[in-house]
Amino acid sequence: MSHLEFTLVSAAGESDVAFDISEMVIAGWAGRDAEAMEHHIRELEALGVARPASTPTFYRVAAARLTQAPEIEDAGPNGSGEVETLLIAAHGRLYVGVGSDHTDRKAETVGVTLSKQMCDKPVAASLWPYEEVAGHWDSLILRSHALIDGEMVLYQEGPVSGLLAPQDLIGRYAPDGRLADGTAMFGGTMPAIGGIRPASRFEGELVDPVLNRRLAFGYDVRVLPVRG
Q1: What's the number of domains the chain is made of?
Q2: Contacts of 72 (CB under 8 A, 6+ apart)
Q3: Which range marks the domain in which residue 219 is found?
Q4: Confidence grade of residue 72 (pLDDT, cut at 50, 70, 90)
Q5: Are the C-beta atoms of 80 and 196 separated by less than 8 Å?
Q6: What single Pfam family name could you report for this chain, choosing any that match (predicted)?
Q7: 81 three-state secondary structure
Q8: Could you say which DSSP state residue 135 is in?
Q9: What's 112's domain CATH number?
Q10: What is the number of alpha carbons within 13 Å of residue 179 lying toward its C-beta?
Q11: 12 has pLDDT over 80
Q12: Phi, psi of 40 (to 5 degrees)
């Protein structure tokens, strides 16, 4: 269980909301563009990660891994972030946020679920009502920057139209086509510019060019020594 507080940004203004998240789902291999998804699969294969048996794949991770802390801790130097849309079902409504499916890449070569469970999942402190972006969903843009070797670089960027749309994704996960209240779902990611690599800081955003607004987050990565 994870208790998270957000600022809900909507056409009516801003308000505070709080949710108890009891189920966390990470949608992997969720690309709408077969070529881009194949690129990401090969990107991970180069790191020793096995090709998925089917796409998309839904990984279950402890909801307690969700965090809004400004810093996370990695066991060793093998973790890296991935900016993704975040869907939260609560009180009979669907909300949209953004976060990072931070993953241990060394552990990923052993097992994807294991690698994802090992790492905290930072998310932004603000949300939008899904109904306000549903009509122009494909116009939204995901972007991330990473601090690598002392330089902040563009790490990922692209429209969400390259990924499965929320209702399509939810329909493949839930037989009745809806997320149960208390469920959070990451919606997939895009290839890293220059390849997957660790960073000392990761920043991500979801941009809505139609309504001229953005959701953003950032976190530092503290690497813990591995001595045994």
Answers
A1: 1
A2: 102, 119, 120, 122, 219, 220, 221, 222
A3: 2-10+19-224
A4: very high
A5: yes
A6: DUF2848
A7: coil
A8: G
A9: 3.90.850.10
A10: 29
A11: yes
A12: -70, -35
Give the CA distances from residue 37 to residues 53, 135, 197, in Å, rounded to whole numbers and listed in that order: 14, 24, 18
Other Cβ atoms within 10 Å of 46 Cβ, number: 10
What 3-state DSSP class applies to 46? coil
Structure tokens at 152: 């902040």
Among residues 74, 109, 87, 107, the alpha carbon closest in space to that of 24 is found at 87
Q: Report residue 131 as tokens.
A: 């109904």
Q: Which residue has the tokens 């690599």?
A: 197
- Report the run of H or E that residue 167 belongs to, with start and end: helix 166-173
pLDDT(33) > 80 = no
**Which residue, among 172, 142, 157, 204, has the nearest Cα to 29 in the 3D structure?**
172
Rounded-to-integer distance, Cα 146 and Cα 157, Å: 12
Using only C-alpha atoms, the chain has a radius of gyration, in whole angstroms, of 16
Q: What is the pLDDT of residue 45?
A: 84
What pTM value is reported for the model?
A: 0.93
Check residue 32 and report its DSSP letter. S
Coil, strand, or helix at residue 191? coil
Query: And the tokens for 190?
Result: 């895009």
CB 159 within 8 A of CB 208: no
Average pLDDT in the 64-69 region? 98
